[in-house]
Amino acid sequence: MQKDPLPFTSPLLNTGATRPTSVSIPSATLAAATPRATANNNLNNSPLGNGVYAPPQSQSLPPTQPTLRTPTESFSVSAFRRRSLCSIDQPGVVMTRLPQELEDTQHEFGSKLVVIMVGLPARGKSYLVKKLQRYLTWLQYDTKVFNVGNRRRIASKGDNRNGTSHSHAFFDPKNTAAKEIRDELALESLEELIAWLKQGGRVGIHDATNSSRERRKLLLNRLEQEPNCRVLFIESICTDPVVLAHNLTMKLSSPDYKDMDERQAREDFRKRLENYERAYQTLGEEDEEDGIQYCKLINVGKKVIAYNIQGYLAGQCIFYLMNFNLSPRCIWLTRHGESVDNIVGKIGGDAPLSARGKRYGDCLSRFIQHQKKENKKSRRVEAEAGMAISPLRERTVAVWTSMLTRTKETVEGFDPKEYDIKHIRFLNEIYAGICEGLSYTEIEMEYPEEFEARRVNKLFYRYPGMGGESYLDVIQRLNPLIIELERMTSDLLIVTHRVVLRILLGYLMDIDRSKMPEMDVHLHTLYCVEPKPHGTVVRKYRWDEELDWFVEESVDK
Ligand code: F6P
Predict the structure, then answer these.
(1) Which terminus, N or C, of the chain has the lesser number of Cβ atoms within 10 Å?
(2) Active-site positions?
(3) Each residue of 241-282: pLDDT tens digit?
(4) Residues lining ligand 1, CB < 6 A?
């Protein structure tokens, strides 16, 4: 039998403080011996975000011959990473088996990415960065933005004397004293970012203009000392006059200008921009000589130039950024109407709607029809006031449901001649494996250990049995839908289930992952999410059964 190339620690031999002995266990034996342990315990034990394989805690593992290591077999994190043929690394669903020597360095293993933003002021960098942070965090990569402008404002304390004030003169490339301070601030932010990655962060985003080659070189020189970090430059270029005018208006309400007279602010910003333009060097051939990977996003992803993209994570970032748009739209989300299983508290299954659930579905179709007309009116008003960021056009509403009976029945009142209706398997409820069709009380009685394991770590917990899923599994299958949802320009109604709704709202409302699996998402509640350039507006409606209509309620995050 062929020997497994990567020995790991056997829990049978790892008792108390004694150094674990290295044993080699063929993966086939392992899979056969511990199917359940492999599915659940590893994910539960795995520190969030490093995708590292933790040995199963099963007593049924046959101990095999201890392997003697020769000095040439010892690995370092970088050597192990270099040896990796593929960089796919998805928290909770991809596990990398580590050699025993590297077990203490598990936190260093997951690939680290430093994203360095490039672009003139008011090119939507901070907007892109916020979206990217939200998306990557939702995919369970710890992501943090390090904004150099904020550091500058804190350093200046609103005081002109130390030269860090935000007047346009401070950004003059010929102002050497100020340039030194700006470079210093950029490096300090980078240091903070690196320190954070070393403490376990995965993606650090350096949010600044970084608009000259000299500045980029400065950052790259520092990053050369960090072999475990990959670097991705993202440049935002904007030539669309409507978007530029909109960005300028946003800039005038930013911390630098919000307390200034509007005319004075416009004038100062115009001069600041001129200063930046004088020193601006777009990413190009000279940067390519440094062997970097980069992506240029032109007009919010309308045109994308990508160079030398290596690695799964960088690819994910770019795919995401090239797919979104700024069109105003409403994303409506709800669970299906009450099902007959809901009445008796059974989870999973494919039950039909109760009579009450059917009434909810009827009301939902009438309400969305009504909202469609209302939205049309308010968009016309926005367009007439010159506030629209994209041209006014006839809006269709897409309707997505899962493939389960209860969601399909909920949208029976929607006419396919008027709505683009799709039933999508990705939107199905979490599959509860051997617990399908049971109530929570029954699960607690029949499988107390499973019940407790889920209580302790609901996000990572995977239901046992064929096809059993965890929240993290559901996040992965929803990823293509998030991309599609960002790409679409039409209004959308999603009719789905409790877990899927929590996860989708988790993304749209940027809800902390510790809160997301416990979020209250009641039956017969409808959410309306409107992505706006300055953030997301969320409204919540409850179906009032007596009124047979929806009543707006306050939203708590
Ligand atoms: O009870 C309805 C339901 O959608 C079940 O099918 C599903 O297993 C459950 O909710 C998910 O909620 P939680 O993750 O809180 O157990």
Answers:
(1) N
(2) 207, 238, 429, 497
(3) 888 888 888 888 888 888 888 888 888 888 888 988 998 999
(4) 347-348, 429-430, 432, 497-499
